[in-house]
Specification:
Order of helices and strands: HHHHHHH
Distance between the termini: 46 Å
Strand content: under 5%
Number of helices: 7
Largest sheet: none
Radius of gyration: 16 Å
Number of strands: 0
Structural class: mainly alpha
Helix content: 40-55%
Shape: globular
């Protein structure tokens, strides 16, 4: 119950990169577990997701490193996570604890590097003032550098 209230509160404050891809997929996964959320403007969010998804080919995720690796939780059930192992860098998927967690939860063979990255992110990447929270990127310096490189 406490987790459901937390998610309901956070759904109205989507501040994350690619939220329009992540939130609909997470809602679908929760609904498969018979957990339903009444999200304001869900239809608008689904239209936005459809528009964004139409702009890229998911098969490209296996071939090239791309910023989409930062948002793998949007592709649970849509891509083969076993084919993404080559994109791990320092144990992470694009310096994203949530994306790395999605990878680790959906790959068929446990990945020690990804686990070590997540343990380190939990230990060292907590946001100030939030008990148990983890920054959306860890380490931040690596993410900022790669973001600039992809813009060039």
């Amino acid at each position: 119950m406490k987790a459901t209230r937390f998610v309901e509160k956070r759904l109205t404050k989507a501040e994350r990169i690619a939220f329009e891809l992540i939130i609909p997929n997470l809602l679908d996964l929760l609904e498969k577990e018979d957990i339903h959320f009444d999200l304001p403007n869900r239809d608008g969010l689904l239209r936005l997701e459809e528009c964004k998804m139409s702009k890229f080919c998911l098969d490209q995720i296996y071939k090239h490193q791309s910023p989409i690796l930062y948002s793998l939780e949007a592709f649970i059930g849509k891509v083969d996570f076993n084919k993404l192992k080559k994109h791990l860098s320092g144990g992470s998927m694009f310096c994203s604890p949530s994306s790395t967690t999605a990878y680790l939860m959906n790959v068929s063979e446990w990945d020690e590097r990804a686990e070590r990255y997540l343990v380190n992110a939990l230990k060292n990447g907590q946001k100030n003032g939030e008990n148990g929270g983890v920054a959306c990127t860890y380490p931040n310096t690596t993410f900022e550098l790669t973001g600039v490189l992809f813009l060039i």
